[in-house]
Amino acid sequence: MDWRLVVAKKALVARVPFGDALRRAKRRRVGYRPDLGNLETTLENYADMHAAALRAGRPIAGARVLEVGSGWFPLIPILLCLDGAREVVMTDLNPHMDEVTFAAAVDYLRGRFPERTALRDIRRLSDLPLRYLAPYAPADVADGSIDLVVSRTVLEHIDPGPLVALLGALRPKLAAGARMVHLVDHSDHLQHIDRGLSPVNFLSWGEGRHRLVNLLIGEGENRLRHHQYPPLFERAGLELVFEQGTPHPATLDSLRGLRLAPPFDAMSAEQLSVLVSIYALKAAGAS
Questions:
Q1: Which end of the chain has fewer CB atoms within 10 angstroms, the N or the C?
Q2: More confident residue, 12 or 216
Q3: What whole-number distance in Å separates Cα of residue 259 and Cα of residue 203?
């Protein structure tokens, strides 16, 4: 689908009165079929995040976990519980998940992992050590109570100032030895729908056009590149344990035919073509 049509559709849907309530009612009536490709990507991302947590020295087993931006389909929280997390606190600015999307996530995992017999007994949120906070506020979670903070494809939707504020508010929640693991998707998310675009097409837009598109769709991206996140983490009182992110070969090729807007025209092709990053963090000065 052409990305312009996607923007127009999202702009209209975002402005429907009581839109969220109407969508929840529709899901209860006719169900909701998730994007299977997106769910498969989520599983791949979770495997990478799990490995990153282990490498950072914070195993999931026994951990009290907080997920930033749990979204509609809680695959990652469910898998965290199955992998031994003591508790998983799911958070969001707005309540997206409901009993329909939770059941759809469980059904998908049952089909995907028939050997995980524990999935057979899961019917509702209360069957797992899950807590859902939407809307989330920092006061909802006690200081020093979290062993692991995770997010998947969330940070790229937050502007630098609010991102520093969010991470800074999460830092006091970390227990001794706690870690954060954040997976960031730096690609133009409209390209996920319109495959004719370069994965970094939005780097050709001026700031005014970019802000307009973000305003219309209500879920825009900050366009930060891999190397621009660590200084923000430092401002939030966090330090890197390690980071992962390598240039994407096809994106390197696509940059040759793309006229870049400032400030991206002053960055190297290698910096611009990293599409997925993982950052493992700890509180500054912590062991």
A1: C
A2: 216
A3: 8
